Amino acid sequence: MDHSIRILTEEMLRACVPLDRQAISLVGNAFSALSGGAVVMPPVLSMNLPEVHGEVDIKTAYIPGFNEFAIKVSPGFFDNPALGLPSLNGLMVVLSARTGIVEAVLLDNGYLTNVRTAAAGGVAADCLAPKVVQTAGVIGTGVQARLQMKAAHLVRSFERVIVWGRDRGKAEQCARDLQQDLGIPAEVSDSAADLVARCQLVVTTTPATEPVLQANWLHPGLHITAMGSDQSGKNELDPDILARADLYVCDNQRQCETLGELRTAQAAGYLVGSSLPELGAIVRGAVSGRVSEEAVTVCDLTGTGAQDTAIAAHALAQAAKADQGFSVPARIG
Amino acid sequence: MDHSIRILTEEMLRACVPLDRQAISLVGNAFSALSGGAVVMPPVLSMNLPEVHGEVDIKTAYIPGFNEFAIKVSPGFFDNPALGLPSLNGLMVVLSARTGIVEAVLLDNGYLTNVRTAAAGGVAADCLAPKVVQTAGVIGTGVQARLQMKAAHLVRSFERVIVWGRDRGKAEQCARDLQQDLGIPAEVSDSAADLVARCQLVVTTTPATEPVLQANWLHPGLHITAMGSDQSGKNELDPDILARADLYVCDNQRQCETLGELRTAQAAGYLVGSSLPELGAIVRGAVSGRVSEEAVTVCDLTGTGAQDTAIAAHALAQAAKADQGFSVPARIG
Questions:
Q1: Which CATH superfamily is domain B128-302 in?
Q2: Engineering a disulfide at B250: which of A34, B29, B46, B256 sits with its beta carbon 3.0 to 4.6 angstroms away?
Q3: How confident is the model at residue A7 (pLDDT cuts 50, 70, 90)?
Q4: ipTM of the complex
Q5: Residue A203 C-alpha, separation from nearest chain B C-alpha, in angstroms
C-alpha cells in the first residue's frame, strides 16, 4: 500500500504552531482527558548516560478520540554548549491511533515541548490565578521564563512583569525581551522574596535542586505555578508551601509524586496517601479551582505525554492545512 | 548550525542491509558489549492499547564506542490485516551518542528488527549448535521462520531443512521458499516431535502461549533456539527443557526473566536465584558455549535494544557509503 510520511522541520513547526490561546485550549483538553482516566500513559522511559554527560527521556500517551498519538524523544546532552550546540533537542514521531503506522516525524528540536509546556502554564493560570492579576513574576531567565509569561498573559492581562534570576545580566535580558514581546513594563527584582511580595501570579522555571521560593513569603491572593521540576532530583518550592496552600493541584499525581514538587513535600510528610486534585479535573469542572480571590494556590507541572500527543496532533493538522513538510514515500506491506 | 537528517525508507534499507555474515558478526559484538555490563539499556517501554487492539514497544540501548544509538518504536496493531495492512511496522530514530542530536530516521517498517532478530539466531547457532549440523528444523512458518533458517545456514552448512507449523499450507509455502532461498532440500514434517527427532538444530519462531516443544523430545546433540517469546504472556518451551538442558543461555537475563522462556521455567522453580550465562559472554569467550557434540543446549532470545543500536548504526554507515536517503535540512540552535 502506498503511503507517505510527512517530515516537518523546526522552522516549519515554528511557523505552524505558535503559542496562542488555541494551544492553551488543546493542552487543557489533554489534561481533562488525562485526569478522566481514559488516557493510556506509560511511565517515562529515562536513560541516563553519565559517560557522555547526557540523558534521554521518552514520553508517550494515547488519548481516546485522537486520530494520532505521539512518541517524544527528548535528549539532553550537557556538554553541547561547549560545541556550540544546544543541550536540549529531540523530535516527535506521530503514529496513527488506529493502525500504529507512522504518519509524521516532527523534527522540532524541542520547540513543540516548549510550546506545550508553556501552554500548560497558561491552563494553570487560567484555572487557578486570581481573576485580577496586576503583576506577574517569573523566577528563572531561560526560554520557559519568557514563554510562561507569554502564556499567562494570554489568560490574565496583567500590567507589569517582574523577573528574578541568579544572574542579573540574564534577568535584565529576559525583562527586555518580555517588555518587547508583551508590550508592558518589565523589571528585574532584587530578590525572589521581593518579587513574590509584589505579584499575584508567580511561575518558577528553574532547574533548582533546592527551594527558590519560601513558605514565609506566601500572601493572600497568590498563585504559584512550579514548572521546573521534571526529575527526581529537582525541587523549586519549600515543602511547607504545599502544606500551607489552600489548594495544591498537580498535572498528574503519579508523575508529581516522583518527579515534581510533590516528591519533596511527601518526603516531609505532607499530602501523603490521598488522592490529590489534577489540573484536568478542574478544566472539566469535576473539581473546583480557586474558590476565593484571597486563596493561595499552587500548581505542580512535570510535563505529560498527553500534552505531547495533543500538540503533535495539532501540529500535524496545521501543517497539512498549510501544505507544509517534506513527503517521504514509504510503501507499507 | 546547519545540520541534515538522513531519512531512509524500507526499500533503501533492504538494499543496504542484507541478512549476512556481517550482520551476524555485528549483532554478536552487541551481545558481547551487553553482557560485559558497559551497555546502558533501560527496560522496554510497553504501551498496551486494548481499545484499538494494539500495542507499542520502545527499546533503546547505548553501547560505548558506538557513534550512534537507536531508539526503536515497534507498534503492533492486530486489526490491521483486515484493512490490508501488516500488523507490525515501526521505525528507528538514530541519535549521535556524543550530542544526542538526531542523525537519521530509519522508516524500516520492522525490516531491521527482522534482520537483527535473525542475526541473533545466527549468533546463537554459531556459539551453541553442534559443529556438524546435517538437518535443521524450524517451528513456525512466518517471516522469522525463513530468516532464522537463512541465518543458521550462514554459520552451519546443513544439508536439509524441515518445517512444522499448525497450518500445513503455510508450512509447505515456507518449505518451498527455504528450498529456493537456501538451495537445499526442504520438507514439511507431520509433527513437531518428528521434526525435533531428526534435527540437530531447532529454532522456534511462534507467538505461542503454551509450549510447542516438549522435554521428552530432547536428544543428545540438540541445540534449540527459542526466539518467539518476547512478552510476558508468551511461552514456546516446556519448562522442563530448561531444567534438563546441559546449558541454558539467555540474550539478557533481566529481560528473559520477564519476557522469555526463563519466566515460565522460573515459575516452575527452575534456574531461580542464579546468575545465568548470557550469549554475549560466550561470544567474547568469558563463558564456554557447547562443550561436547552430545550436549543439549538452549538459547532464549527476547530481543534487545543493543541489537537495535548495532543494526541501526550499521544501516546508517551502509546508507552513507551508498549515498542513499533523503536529506532533510534541520538547523540546530
A1: NAD(P)-binding Rossmann-like Domain (3.40.50.720)
A2: B256
A3: very high
A4: 0.89
A5: 25
pLDDT of residue B38: 87
Length of chain A measured in residues: 333
A45, A77, A105: residue with CB nearest B45:
A45
Closest CA to A28 of A124, A97, A92: A124
Q: Which residue has the cell 536465584?
A: B273
**Residue-wise burial string across B243-268, b where 16 or more C-beta atoms lie within 10 A, e elsewhere:** eebebbbbbbbebbbebbbbbbbbee
Residue A230: per-residue pLDDT? 86
pLDDT of residue A83: 93
- Name the band, by pLDDT with cuts 50, 70 and 90, for residue B115: very high
Q: Is the pLDDT of residue B155 over 80?
A: yes
Whether residue A1 has pLDDT greater than 80? no
d(CA A233, CA B310): 32
Q: How far is B156 from chain A (nearest CA, A)?
A: 31
- Please list every residue in chain B whose beta carbon sits closer than 8 Å to the beta carbon of residue A319: none
Domain ranges of chain A: 4-112+306-329, 124-302
Q: Across-strand partners of A248?
A: A298
CB contact under 8 A, B100 and A54: yes
Q: Which of residues 103-132 of B touch A (CB under 8 A)?
A: 105, 107, 109
**Residue type at A54 in one-letter notation:** G
Are residues B84 and A1, on separate chains, in Cβ contact within 8 Å? Answer: yes
Which option is the CATH number for B4-112+306-329: 3.90.180.10, 3.30.160.140, 3.40.50.720, 3.30.1780.10? 3.30.1780.10
Model pLDDT, residue B2:
83
User: What DSSP state is assigned to residue A114?
Assistant: H
Query: Grid coordinates standing for B201?
Result: 538444530
pLDDT, tens digit, 9 for 90 and up, residues A31-62: 999 999 889 999 999 999 999 999 999 999 99
**What was the pLDDT predicted at A265?**
97
Check if B86 contacts A (Cβ < 8 Å).
yes
- In tens, the pLDDT along B8-55 reads 999 999 999 999 999 999 999 999 999 998 899 999 999 999 999 999
